[in-house]
C-alpha cells in the first residue's frame, strides 16, 4: 500500500490583509502537519485574498505577496510537507495567477493558471494573463530578496508536474477543471495520481453540485486523488465564498469541509491509498 495523507483548506482570507492571510496560511500548515499530512493545499490567491480587484495591478500587492511567501519559506513551515500556496506573480511584465509549490524551504515549481475565469462575477482577464505555453517549463528568476533568503536563484515556471519517488503530483487551478480539455486528463495519462485544485469559488445556488460532479467526473474512470481547496466567507468584495474543500478518490468523496462555516481556518484531511488509483488505472490496457 502507498498510503498518503493530504490536507486541503477552507481559509477565510481578506483582500489585501496580508498579515491576517499569512497567519491563516501558517496555522493551516501547522494543523496539516499535526494531522500527519505531507501535502497541504490552500485556496487560489490565498496570500493576497481572491478579490483584490484592481489592487492586483499595483506592484505593492505583488511585492507583499513575495514578502509573505518569504516568511513561510525561511521558517520550518514547509519542512517535510509539500505546500501549494496561491499568489499572483509577475513574469516579464505580465501578471499570472499562480500556485507556488514549496517543499523543504525551497520553491520547487510555479504553476500559472492557463484558463482564466471570466464569466458571471469573474473578471480575471482584467488582471491576469493566461499562461498559454503548454509545451514548456521556463526558468523564472526569483526576486532578489527571495533568492537571497532561500538560497535559490530560479525555479521552473509553467505547466508541468512533480514526480516524487512514489507518486506524481500536479496543480490544476480552479477554472481549468471546468474547461473542455482540463489539464488533469492528460496529466493522468502521464502518471499523475494527485491533483491539487486551488480555487476561489463564490457561493451560487447548486454550484457545489456542479463542482462535486466535476471532481467525480475527473477521477471516477481515469482514477486519481482530487484535492480541492476554496476560499471561505467574504473577503471585502461583494462575493461570499463557500468553502467545501474536499478530497475525492476514484470518483468517491472521502472528505469534505463545511459550506457556511464561521471558522477562519478549516483543514480537511484524508488518508488515501495510491494503490487504489494504480489499480483502477490497471483496467485500461
Ligand atoms: N476562480 C475561478 O476560477 C472560478 C471557477 C468557477 N467558475 C467557479 O465558480 O468555481
Can you walk through the features of this model?
This protein has 285 residues and is of the alpha/beta class. The two termini are 22 Å apart. It has helices at 18-34, 59-74, 124-127, 144-150, 183-189, 207-219, 274-281; strands at residues 3-11, 39-41, 82-91, 94-103, 106-112, 137-141, 154-158, 162-163, 168-171, 194-199, 225-234, 240-242, 246-249, 252-256, 265-273. The protein has one domain (3-280): Nitrilase/N-carbamoyl-D-aminoacid amidohydrolase (4-Layer Sandwich). 25% of the residues lie in helices and 32% in strands. The strands form two sheets. Strands 1, 2, 3, 4, 5, 8, 9, 10, 11, 12, 13, 14 and 15 form a 13-stranded mixed sheet that branches. A two-stranded antiparallel sheet has the order 6-7. The chain has seven helices and 15 strands. Helix 2 runs parallel beside helix 4 (144-150). It is globular, with a radius of gyration of 17 Å. Helix 6 links the parallel strand 10 and strand 11. The model has no long low-confidence stretch (mean pLDDT 97). Glutamine (GLN) is lined by residues 44, 117, 122, 174-175, 178, 199-201. It holds the Pfam family CN_hydrolase. Keywords: Ligase. InterPro entries: C-N_Hydrolase (IPR003010), C-N_Hydrolase_sf (IPR036526), NAD_synthase (IPR003694). One of its GO terms (molecular function) is NAD+ synthase (glutamine-hydrolyzing) activity. This is Glutamine-dependent NAD(+) synthetase.
Which terms would index this structure?
single chain, 285 residues, alpha/beta, 13-stranded mixed beta sheet, two-stranded antiparallel sheet, 7 helices, 32% strand, globular, binds glutamine
Amino acid at each position: 500500500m502507498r498510503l498518503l495523507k493530504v490536507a486541503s483548506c477552507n481559509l477565510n482570507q481578506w483582500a489585501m490583509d496580508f498579515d491576517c492571510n499569512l497567519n491563516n496560511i501558517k496555522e493551516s500548515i501547522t494543523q496539516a502537519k499535526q494531522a500527519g499530512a505531507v501535502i497541504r493545499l490552500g485556496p487560489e490567491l490565498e496570500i493576497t485574498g481572491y478579490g483584490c480587484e484592481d489592487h492586483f495591478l499595483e506592484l505593492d500587492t505583488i511585492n507583499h505577496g513575495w514578502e509573505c511567501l518569504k516568511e513561510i519559506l525561511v521558517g520550518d513551515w514547509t519542512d517535510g510537507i509539500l505546500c501549494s500556496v496561491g499568489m499572483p506573480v509577475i513574469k516579464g511584465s505580465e501578471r499570472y495567477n499562480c500556485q507556488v509549490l514549496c517543499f523543504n524551504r525551497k520553491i520547487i515549481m510555479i504553476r500559472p493558471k492557463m484558463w482564466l475565469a471570466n464569466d458571471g462575477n469573474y473578471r480575471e482577464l482584467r488582471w491576469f494573463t493566461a499562461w498559454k505555453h503548454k509545451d514548456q517549463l521556463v526558468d523564472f528568476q526569483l526576486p532578489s530578496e527571495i533568492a537571497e533568503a532561500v538560497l535559490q536563484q530560479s525555479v521552473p515556471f509553467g505547466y508541468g508536474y512533480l514526480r516524487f519517488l512514489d507518486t506524481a503530483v500536479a496543480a490544476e487551478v480552479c477554472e481549468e477543471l471546468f474547461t473542455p480539455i482540463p489539464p488533469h486528463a492528460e496529466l493522468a495519462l502521464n502518471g499523475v495520481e494527485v491533483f491539487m485544485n486551488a480555487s476561489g469559488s463564490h457561493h451560487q445556488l447548486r454550484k457545489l453540485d456542479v463542482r462535486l460532479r466535476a471532481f467525480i467526473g475527473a477521477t471516477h474512470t481515469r482514477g486519481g486523488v482530487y484535492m480541492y481547496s476554496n476560499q471561505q466567507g467574504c473577503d471585502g468584495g461583494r462575493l461570499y465564498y463557500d468553502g467545501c474543500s474536499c478530497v475525492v478518490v476514484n470518483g468517491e468523496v472521502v472528505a469534505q469541509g463545511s459550506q457556511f462555516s464561521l471558522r477562519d481556518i478549516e483543514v480537511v484531511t484524508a488518508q488515501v491509498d495510491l494503490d487504489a488509483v494504480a489499480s483502477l488505472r490497471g483496467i485500461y490496457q
